[in-house]
Description:
The chain folds into two domains: about 5-190, Aminohydrolase, N-terminal nucleophile (Ntn) domain (Glutamine Phosphoribosylpyrophosphate, subunit 1, domain 1, 4-Layer Sandwich); about 215-460, 3-Layer(aba) Sandwich (Rossmann fold), CATH 3.40.50. It has 23 helices and 17 strands. The chain has helices at about 15-25, 80-85, 100-110, 205-220, 235-250, 255-260, 275-285, 295-310, 315-335, 345-350, 360-375, 380-390, 400-405, 425-430, 445, 455, 460-470, 475-480, 480-485, 495-505, 510-515, 555-565, 570-575, and strands at about 1-10, 35-40, 45-50, 65, 70-80, 120-125, 130-135, 145-150, 155-160, 170-175, 180, 185-190, 230, 265-270, 290-295, 340, 395. α7 (about 275-285) links the parallel β14 (about 265-270) and β15. It is globular and about 65 Å long.
Amino acid sequence: MCGILAVLGCSDDSQAKRVRVLELSRRLKHRGPDWSGLHQYADNYLAHQRLAIVDPASGDQPLYNEDKSIVVTVNGEIYNHEELRKQLPNHTFRTESDCDVIAHLYEEHGEGFVDMLDGIFSFVLLDTRDNSFLVARDAIGVTSLYIGWGLDGSVWIASELKGLNDDCEHFETFPPGHLYSSKDREFRRWYNPPWFSEAIPSAPYDPLALRNAFEMAVIKRLMTDVPFGVLLSGGLDSSLVAAITARHLAGTKAAKQWGAKLHSFCVGLKGAPDLRAAKEVADYLGTVHHEFHFTVQDGIDAIEDVIYHIETYDVTTIRASTPMFLMSRKIKSLGVKWVISGEGSDEIFGGYLYFHKAPNKEEFHQETCRKIKALHKYDCLRANKSTYAWGLEARVPFLDKEFINVAMNIDPENKMIKPEEGRIEKWVLRKAFDDEEHPYLPKHILYRQKEQFSDGVGYSWIDGLKAHAAKHVTDKMMLNAANIFPHNTPNTKEAYYYRMIFERFFPQNSARLTVPGGASVACSTAKAVEWDAAWSNNLDPSGRAALGVHNSAYENQINSAKAAVGPEKIIPKMEISPLGVAIQS
């Protein structure tokens, strides 16, 4: 994995242009501190900042075919590269890098090879035989990628906004599951799974098939030549990832190189829900567990760095990215270069607490489809950029292409949350791993209620952020918010505070358009807000905003506060905004 930057067809092959490309590439050096590379062919420049994980000795980029007529710079992990090499018997590979297959596959199959890749990737391929290029991004958008256009007719590609925002007239997010060819000059979707149409599937629920598919997704991601670990919050998703990794690690190449003892990592405020649960899971699995603490002030002090690196002003993403950003720095300091994480499960299985209010299986399924399609703007962006800020890679098995196909083909009636039948959120996943003979996890962990990461690290984290923002954003400023920020107008002081910081780093209109907006409650899409009329008055992305569902919902906390200090001291805050309503439980 790494950071990539390409400038294509810029009508300038001067030394000054080369120096500028190198300068911009260095803005991505945090993503790949192990090596830098630049290939120039006429007025095309392909730059690369490498984080060496597979074949660290010889896998430096750019990568080439045999005669160097095809040049590739790629940010990715190709998990089926060994099988693909076997399909290319007449080709000679220069390195053992998993990404070395890309140039050779293009020679054999042209643009159609992209769907053959099983993994996560963003790449730029330059074919010097006809001076054409091809750009592609992985199915879900686990890797980050942007595209821009210069006034001179050039096309720019970069892993992060900061690599191109100052030099392009217009730029935007490169859409996941798409490719862009210089021959067509337009995006084409290469990823076309059955679920993408949002048609309602009808396959019966097969717990063993679901379990096997996820185990395979985890196992294939244990491909490594460097030390790694697992992010463990103690919730269902990360605990399952840790359990499967611990169960299968012993027989892998990684275990032979680095030992069969799995390292796990968790972050939170002291006394946070995640810390207690993670320690219990770590003890159960026998991992070498590393628990990191941060204070609310530590997080607040890091906010500007977080926004610079994750390149968004979305409230939920910033709340969750900050502890992950702090933890990633600690993990990297231990010599670990990549981690395996649990993102994506809530979108696939309807794990967010607002799914309790889904009116029927059709709307339940369509909302999961919408959530998966939007992952690249939220959790994938967070997981990728908050870790890469410190040169740490995150791998996400729940977003494996084959696993998604299996999980999204289940009749959504089986995913519906039905407390009266003992079915809580993500019941189909929990049931698949509820093995009495060879348990993966303790029962109470397997059936623990969903905590959003920004909540689970400690409830006072969000409350502290709101209080801090209130000190920097006045009521008068909020009155003018729609005039200052007409696009995605911030409706809380916290959102306004983040927006000010973002605009300072990325002032271009194209930059603000890369960030999603719209009404949301407990991480819902705007469409799902319609499921409950009460939600429109409580548009907060925290899981505790799912009134009547979360065990520590705001309404319960408000009632407790009323009993303690009297309603007259609580009601005025509720009338003004959600700020300050949630108290630490």
